[in-house]
Amino acid sequence: MGGPAGSWRRLSDSEGEETASDPQPPLLDHQGAHWKNAVGFWLLGLCNNFSYVVMLSAAHDILSHEKVPGNQSHVDPGPTPTPLNGSSRFDCNSVSTAPSGSRQWALCCWELHPGRLFSFSGDQLVCYFFLLTSPEPQDPGGEEEAEIAAQQPLIGTTASGSKPGSSSGLSLQERWTVFKSLVQYIIPLVLVYFAEYFINQGLFELLFFRNTSLSHAQQYRWYQMLYQAGVFASRSSLHCCRIRYTWALAVLQCLNLAILLADVWFSYLPSIYLVFLIILYEGLLGGAAYVNTFHNIALETSDEHREFAMAAACISDTLGISLSGLLALPLHDFLCHLS
């Protein structure tokens, strides 16, 4: 009686089992692409900041070098430096380690040299073309997403001819609205960068301890190394620690500025190792503020606004660094002329 039906049912069940066991897109390929992208973007960020970081770290040596025969630069490594400004209680260079004047123009022209462009753009082209993978094959979308997309109107908010997620179709009013929503992230990041680069450009050279075996140039290098180590660690720690309220980081960084500025004036910190810890902490705050700001913006903006929002927020670090340089130069000159 039920033979044919039973056979048909068993056949259907077996076909269902075979269908269910069909091979799915390999998970290992997706994970491999994820790690390739992670390494690629990490290397791109490293190449992007490398020359800038080296220039800042060597600023004291560049400004205090002495010319010797043969047109070679010589930096005195001795532990007892000679103040360049004899009337000052500080051991100062004639100018601050902040970028300034003709030196900055010379550095900009040097960066535009074809050989340098090729060398740095080449540590970046390899990463872009051989490590990064296109997002389209990695996000094909499932049946549920396809059904949802099919139910959406053909004419939506996205401008005609522009890709989804592109900001090219945003009106001026939309851009202004998005920018106003970013103020809560832009202002804290501006303050963080203002405070830390005010420390780095205006105070590092003045935080000089004479009761140590380290020369002035060596102390400056340690300050820069510890700061950059803190930035490096915190920028790579997003998966371990995420911070929603970046205002707190701005307040803490401004507190660092106040502590170190007071030490320059009153010399109350007992040991250079305490300054080392503060500077490492400064770098941790700076890197954390940067990476968490952009992570929060990426999470809280819509697809069509995200590209513009990320680009607009990039003014924060540039504005903070520029303002700090404008104030660090006159402050450095003022302090160096104190008797």
TrEMBL record:
It comes from the Eukaryota. Belongs to the battenin family. GO terms for cellular component: endomembrane system; lysosome; membrane. It is found in: Endomembrane system. GO terms for biological process: lysosomal lumen acidification. SUPFAM superfamilies: MFS general substrate transporter. This is CLN3 lysosomal/endosomal transmembrane protein, battenin. It is a multi-pass membrane protein. It comes from Microcebus murinus (Gray mouse lemur).
